[in-house]
Amino acid sequence: MAGTQRYMRYIVFALIALILLFFISSSSSVPSAQWPNYTSETPADPVGKPELATASGAKDQLAQPTTSPNDAKTLPPAVVSGDRMNATFVTLARNQDVWEIAKSIRHVEDRFNRKFNYDWVFLNDAEFSDEFKKVTTALVSGKTKYGLIPKEHWSFPDFIDQDRAAKVRDEMKEKKIIYGDSISYRHMCRYESGFFFRHPLMLDYEWYWRVEPSIELYCDINYDTFKFMAEKKKKYSFVISLYEYVETIPTLWDAVKNFTTAHPEHIAKDNSMKFLSDDGGETYNHCHFWSNFEIGNLNWLRSKAYIDYFESLDHAGGFFYERWGDAPVHSIAAALMLQKEELHFFNDIAYYHVPFTHCPTGEQYRLDHKCHCNPSDNFDWNGYSCTNRFFELNDIAKPEGYEKEQ
């Protein structure tokens, strides 16, 4: 009898437990929320607050989103309307540079050229590989063209003493002068100084923008830089300037003075000699525009004045007996043969080429143009920069906030 009562109690407790579980599960089985299917036919609420259908069937608006959506009106169009200038990007590269130049192209396209679709000319002292062509063609929004550099433009000219040139390279190697023992670097500097603008592919154009492998652009460029140069009557531009390595150009200025004495007709009256010299041209202060970035006029480089200048320097032998760079060669020509107002500093083109950065001075500009450079990295007002000298020469007011970057 006692055992039967005990079993009955177990059965009652079990029934009570089942009843409690039933009520708990019933109270928590609220229908799950159903998110609306947003399509072009059923747009979300115009103020950006999508609606949620609740279990009761009523629609309650969600709280204001915690992230800020892009305002489509402020984004640049995929292609800017209007006429294009007769212009191209130009890059001197080798096949093994393909992935480094790919990075550069992405920066240029994303920040500028996707809106304008300018062409791109690639030059090489060897035939470009199929891989190089496929990768770069896929990245460039304009037409791509691939040119082979003639052997006579990428070799020792017949007036160079090969033994003397080799001895110089050995001496520079011992002194650990950058690229001091490199033959290919010397060919590159000579080619950029006097031949790239004469390549058959380049003869189709009036303006060029030089782009090197591994460069970066930090800000959106929403206007046509080529059209700006033409409308403002500019012929040469830069973003970074600095002092050249003294050991690489010991006799360059002497060669320049020989040229100016022989061809005074090529020297502009209102030139930028003060950018180059602190004593009226007697000596060179080694300031130059860093030519791995240039936007310039090809007709000026193809002019008799510039060709006479290059040939005079070329026969002096300094590209091989020393290690003259194309940067001081271009810079001296621009400073002496162009009017001051024909040179331009692009403060708004944020640029990096190892190891220097140009980050536009001016916080509001950086915010408006979605810049991602650190202003503390800006080289402009550094003591080794010559940009301050350019501003003083042209009596240009320095950008607001430059003091914080010195």
UniProtKB/TrEMBL annotation:
The active site is at 294 (nucleophile). Keywords: Glycosyltransferase, Signal, Transferase. One of its GO terms (biological process) is protein N-linked glycosylation. Residues 1-29 form the signal peptide. The keyword Signal applies. SUPFAM superfamilies: Nucleotide-diphospho-sugar transferases. Residues 35-79 are annotated as: Disordered. GO terms for cellular component: Golgi apparatus; membrane. Gene3D superfamilies: Spore Coat Polysaccharide Biosynthesis Protein SpsA, Chain A. Pfam families: Glyco_transf_15 (PF01793). GO terms for molecular function: alpha-1,2-mannosyltransferase activity. Belongs to the glycosyltransferase 15 family. This is Glycosyltransferase family 15 protein. The lineage of its organism: Eukaryota, Fungi, Dikarya, Ascomycota, Pezizomycotina.
